[in-house]
Amino acid sequence: MQLSLFPETQTSNAKDKSVFSDPSFASNKLLPVHRWIPWIAGFSSSFVRGVVETKLPQPGTVLDPFAGVGTTLVESALIGHDSVGFEINPYAAFACRVKVNAYKLNPEDIQREIGRFQTFYDHSVTSGYLPMSQPPSGFRTRQAFYSPTVLRKVLIVQDFIDSLDDEKIQEIFRLAFASTMVHYSNYSYEPSLGTRRAAGKKNIADFAVFEVITEKLNQIAFDVKWLSRNLPRHSFKNKVVNASFFDCPQYLKPNSVDLAVTSPPYLNNYHYIRNTRPHLYWLGFVNKPDDTKILEQQNFGKYWQTVRVQDQVNLNFPNPPDELIEKIDYLRTVNTQRGIYGGNGWANYAASYFNDCYRFVQGLRYVLKPSASAFVVIGNSILQGVMFPTDVYLGQIAEQSDLELVSINTPRDTRVGNSIIQSKVRVAKADNACRLYESVVELRQPK
Fold this sequence. Notes:
The protein is an alpha/beta fold and 447 residues long. It contains 15 helices and eleven strands. The strands form three sheets. It has a seven-stranded mixed sheet with strand order 5-2-1-6-7-11-10, with helices on both faces. The chain has a two-stranded antiparallel ribbon with strand order 3-4. A two-stranded antiparallel sheet has the order 8-9. The chain is globular. The model is unreliable at 1-19 and 417-432 (pLDDT under 50).
């Protein structure tokens, strides 16, 4: 194993404290452009900037195979690099694309349309105006997503958005609505999307919908002006691909990427597709349940719900780590009396996940230039009481694929638990010695 960029923390198995900045997404909530979209996952802009500035001092191409809402791509543009991101979730890909292209907008145009928006909204709300827009017909929820009063306001907002002639400005308004839409609904993130009542909160009968959306629009307009002062003067390119990174040969030439910075979905079954269903339906990216099933099958590692009923999913790549084989085999024997809620379904999920880890590193082998690095933020997981050091296994799979494992660093040696651990139905109590942590795995293409 080669010496790390951060030699005092270089390790392949130990969990030492790292000089990496905390990759948690939370700090992005206050930063220009990054703050436009709340996102449950992802990493901080300061982490991305630190990696990019250190590893890529000259203009180059930065890749994020799991782009989310665009932290890596936005920071790469601010530094002056070309960037490309892959993202299967159409809502996240939309948000990512709007953010990385926002510098092309005129903030005065946004402010002018905000003024028109206020006139239209005030007149519509106080008159007998009947909205032409309708809720998405295929969107079904256990209880009304919006109260009747809030729904009328939301539909008035949709009517105004539909009236906008400038497609780029229309996208900004759609983004402002999407980023706030759950806030005034009868649902909330806890962290998965569920009813407010289930979380012990009251339903929302009425809400200042216009004020919240306008606040977001003003924030966006301010940040667009900020971009004009902070972007590099030289030209750069960006590309957002609404497709799986596993299809990267269709979009990228081999050995064309100078640096990859990414965070794939963790082995925690957080359901990105279900948790963005309101956005996908209301923005028109899906129209019926079958549309989301396709996305679930494309997701990195699948989901437990998509593989739990299969007899047995095995590791199907060369030379999987012996310890990983043993853990998955043991997991199949846990809680068998619970049927699909027992160990076999979770073992299928784990095997599917690591099969995709292999496909992921094969993609890195294809796109990275000689000596180029990939920084992968990933967390361990506990399934049915069995701890999986995902970072270690990813590193071993990468080495078997002829990538160099440079280091595994652990900026966060304690992170918040997830539903897999907390569920009384699905999970045996985890060993007290196990804890959740988050690591940065640095992989490198050989010369």
